[in-house]
Write a structure and sequence with these properties.
The complex is a heterodimer of chains A (337) and B (249). Chain A has 337 residues and is α+β, with helices and mostly antiparallel strands. Chain A has helices at 40-47, 81-85, 87-91, 96-109, 125-137, 155-172, 183-189, 207-212, 217-222, 309-314, and strands at residues 3-12, 15-24, 29-33, 55-59, 66-69, 143-147, 175-180, 192-197, 200-205, 227-234, 237-240, 243-246, 253-259, 265-267, 277-289, 292-298, 302-307, 322-327, 333-336. In chain A, the strands form four sheets. In chain A, strands 5-6-7-3-8-9 form a six-stranded mixed β-sheet, with helices on both faces. A five-stranded antiparallel β-sheet of chain A has the order 12-11-10-13-19. Chain A has a five-stranded antiparallel β-sheet with strand order 14-18-15-16-17. In chain A, strand 10 (227-234) and strand 11 form a beta hairpin. Chain B is mostly helical. Chain B has a single domain, classed as MetI-like fold (Orthogonal Bundle), CATH 1.10.3720.10. The longest helix of chain B is centred in the N-terminal third of the chain and has 34 residues, at 41-74. Classes of the chains: A alpha+beta (337), B mainly alpha (249). The A-B interface holds A 45, 48-50, 64, 66-68, 70, 72, 74, 76-78, 87-88, 91-92, 135-136, 139, 145 and B 151, 153-154, 156-163, 167, 171-172, 175-176, 178.
Chain lengths: 337, 249
């Protein structure tokens, strides 16, 4: 049975949700993506039955079969590792022997058997996370709710954790609902994503579809589109600070456009091609990233362009260098102003 | 170095301010007289009554004050400051005034007496009532601060793992406030033991140790009040040290 939220509204502690509707298929890895303060945790707490909606309906969630992992894990500090993992079983009055057996099994599977008697205060961040996963899995949940579980981790631990969640999802076949503000994480994990902004679901669907077609300027901004500009469009041209950009829009009106930084090509000379936009500018700065180099080119407005380190080196791109930026009209997303 | 030295000296002065009168009290009491006094029925029964009545008050406060502390720590509502003000009030008002206020509710002319026919005044219950009234803020405030430090999501996590709200409270929140709870209970018990003003108005008899000290001082002078005072101080000190050691374990 799928999990459905229908027109759910909730005001709580300064956060609010407005008419949230979602369908989550059993076994899906569903990611709710949104900036902090958007109301992501509120959705999870409503799904877990910790809060009740002010209006609207939630169906398809069986109470008592839900695992919930908060960002800071919320391991009970007065219990040791084994006692934390066995908490849900103890509540269910599972016999002592069976509990011990399940706990031992979970500790081993999560590589923390050696920590069984350890106090929570003496665990590292990664160990705490594994204990939290083991504790949630002990009750064999059909639904696992993950509240920014990687936000407190460094980059490499975050990547390892993603792999852990993917494995866990595959092994258990449970439905995962994961909230995050990190769009890379959403792309890496999700079967489907929903973008939540200011308490509203603004877009949802397959991750690639959402990433390639942001619903509005704010979503584009949030999804990491580095080139988002607004201005008047006339005769198919957007006029920006003395620069004219050919856009896929016929009507004359105010509009926003978004161009992905990897959809732009840079060259030393102007390229003769089918691409309708070729803008001349000088390099303002080069930002080195793990994935390559982001070149900020001043063409009248600052244009961000992603290139590889090799291209950067071979083209001798550095501040002050004159370059051409070329991109196709079809790579431009247009939004209402 | 200078910083530490100044702080140590200032702190030490405070300790002396409290310790010197107590030490003076103890050394000016002859140990033989102290032993004799301890054997007096009136003395030991008043000391036991004091310890016991304050214990009842503290136990009653655990059942009512802990839920209130949890509520005040967790909920934001209109009028919360008023409730917190009411809880703090017994600390500020003169305790004789507290005794008189209690008299209007529990005394012979009260609705309680007319309905129940039970005269509370002059009983151990009255002693406990007086002690409860003046000392309960220590427990409520200590536990409230304890609950405030605990993230509500601990309880929520327990609920997602299948616990009822009750079970989550008993197995997660309550053990996590163990220290402020014990500490608040000790403070309340201790404050109850020392109460004079409210108790003397509600129950001159049965006589608690502070009332007995006052009576001996009033009727026979300092010399007769000293041994009882020293005894109460010694017993309180012993009990508190034992409880604090136990609390740390």
């Amino acid at each position: 049975m799928s999990i459905q939220l229908r027109q759910v509204c909730k005001n709580f502690d300064g956060f609010s949700l407005h008419q949230v509707s979602l369908d989550i298929e059993p076994g899906d890895y569903f990611v709710i993506l949104g900036p902090s303060g958007a109301g992501k945790t509120l959705i999870l707490e409503l799904l877990a039955g910790l809060l009740t909606p002010d209006s609207g309906e939630i169906s398809g969630v069986t109470p008592g079969s839900i695992g919930f992992i908060y960002q800071d894990y919320m391991l009970f500090p007065h219990l040791n590792v084994s006692e934390n993992v066995g908490y849900g079983l103890k509540i269910r009055k599972t016999g002592k022997e069976k509990t011990a057996q399940i706990v031992q099994n979970l500790l081993e599977r999560n590589g923390i058997a050696h920590l069984a008697d350890r106090e929570i205060a003496n665990l590292s961040g990664g160990e705490k996370q594994r204990v939290a996963i083991a504790r949630a899995m002990a009750i064999s949940p059909r639904l696992l709710l993950l509240d920014e579980p990687t936000a407190a981790l460094d980059r490499s631990a975050r990547i390892n954790t993603r792999a852990t969640f993917i494995d866990l999802h595959r092994q258990t076949g449970a439905t995962f609902i994961h909230v995050t503000h990190d769009f890379e994480e959403a792309l890496a994990l999700a079967d489907k994503i929903a973008v939540l902004m200011d308490g509203r679901i603004v877009q949802w669907g397959k991750p690639e579809k959402v990433f390639n077609n942001p619903a509005n300027k704010n979503v584009a901004d949030f999804l990491g589109y580095r080139n988002v500009f607004g201005g008047p469009v006339k005769d198919g041209l957007l006029h920006l600070n003395g620069v004219s950009v050919a856009v896929p829009l016929e009507q004359s009106k105010l509009a926003y456009i978004a161009i992905r930084s990897d959809d732009i090509i840079i060259s030393k000379e102007e390229i003769e091609s089918s691409a309708r936009n070729s803008l001349f500018g000088r390099v303002k700065k080069c930002i080195y990233k793990s994935s390559g180099v982001e070149v900020i080119l001043d063409v009248g407005v600052d244009l961000a362009v992603d290139i590889t380190r090799k291209s950067c080196r071979e083209m001798a791109v550095c501040p002050g260098v004159p370059l051409w930026a070329t991109f196709k009209v079809s790579s431009i997303k247009v939004f209402e102003h | 170095m200078k910083f530490r030295l100044i702080f140590s000296v200032l702190g030490f002065l405070l300790v002396l301010f409290i310790a010197i009168p107590i030490l003076k009290l103890l050394i000016s009491t002859n140990p033989d007289v102290l032993m004799e006094t301890a054997k007096e029925t009136e003395v030991y029964s008043s000391i036991f009554l004091t310890l016991r009545a304050s214990l009842w008050a503290t136990l009653a406060a655990l059942f009512t004050g802990v839920p209130l502390a949890h509520f005040l720590a967790r909920k934001r509502f209109r009028g919360k400051k008023i409730i917190e003000g009411i809880i703090d009030l017994p600390v500020i008002i003169p305790h004789t005034a507290a005794g008189i206020a209690l008299l209007t509710v529990w005394g012979r002319n009260s609705l309680f007496f007319r309905v129940s026919g039970f005269n509370v005044m002059g009983t151990e219950v009255a002693v406990s009532l007086g002690m409860f009234f003046v000392s309960v803020p220590f427990l409520v405030n200590s536990v409230k601060e304890g609950f405030k430090l605990i993230d509500e999501r601990f309880e929520k996590t327990a609920v997602t793992l299948g616990a009822s709200r009750w079970k989550a409270f008993l197995t997660v929140s309550l053990p996590m406030v163990k220290k402020p709870l014990i500490s608040g209970a000790i403070m309340m018990w201790g404050r109850g033991i020392s109460e004079f003003g409210a108790v003397v108005i509600l129950a001159y008899h049965p006589m608690t140790a502070p009332v007995l000290i006052f009576e001996r001082f009033q009727n026979f002078g300092l010399k007769y009040a000293l041994p009882v005072t020293a005894l109460l101080v010694l017993i309180s000190l012993a009990v508190f040290i034992i409880v604090r050691v136990f609390e740390d374990k």
